[in-house]
Specification:
fumarase; lyase; EC 4.2.1.2; Fe-S_hydroAse_TtdB_cat_sf; 185 residues; alpha/beta; five-stranded mixed beta barrel
Length: 185
């Protein structure tokens, strides 16, 4: 069994060269949520030559649309969204400095190429475990596109958020590697 590594979100891109497909990490620090609607707006802002509402350099985006917070909690259920829906936007954001992405499911070859090209990382969270994931979120603040409701961009502070490296900057891909290993059995 591999060791679980603790990583700070602001250091994720700096340590991405040390991370390999299949590694388990506990992520702590600032993470931004953004799903389809927010990504479309990010793209439109960039097309217009405007700044994004979040700092992109070395940032981590979590593909999630959290539910409203129950009393006494900073956030409701916060499970990952299928990442492939953001594939048409991800290479551009990675080329502009995005350090990492969190979601679920396989990514396109264009995204995997952008991860390698930019020394970034794609991490998978456990799908279907949003109620458990919210226990790692210590604060939540809407920072952009409030009118989008659950799809607004939120700034989260996470502690020991359990994740698996799905695509590393060396070309490792947990999905294709897993299929290849299964087919050899």
């Amino acid at each position: 069994m591999s060791e679980i590594r603790k990583v700070r979100s602001e250091e994720l891109k700096a340590v991405s060269g040390e991370l390999k497909c299949g590694d388990k990490i506990l992520l702590s620090g600032v993470v931004y949520t953004a799903r389809d609607a927010a990504h479309k707006r990010f793209n439109a802002l960039l097309d217009e030559g405007k700044e994004l509402p979040i700092p992109l350099k070395d940032a981590v985006i979590y593909y999630a649309g959290p539910t409203p917070a129950p009393e006494g909690k900073p956030i409701g259920s916060c499970g990952p969204t299928t990442s492939g829906r953001m594939d048409r936007f991800a290479p551009r954001l990675l080329d502009l400095g995005l350090g990492g992405m969190i979601g679920k499911g396989e990514r396109s070859q264009e995204v995997r190429d952008a991860v390698i090209r930019n020394g970034a990382v794609y991490l998978c969270a456990i799908g279907g475990a949003g109620a458990l994931a919210c226990n790692c979120i210590k604060s939540c603040e809407v920072v952009a596109f409030e009118e989008l409701g659950c799809e607004s961009v939120k700034k989260l502070y996470v502690e020991d958020f359990p994740l698996v490296v799905a695509d590393d900057c060396h070309g490792g891909d947990i999905f294709s590697d897993g299929r290849a290993k299964y087919c050899r059995v």
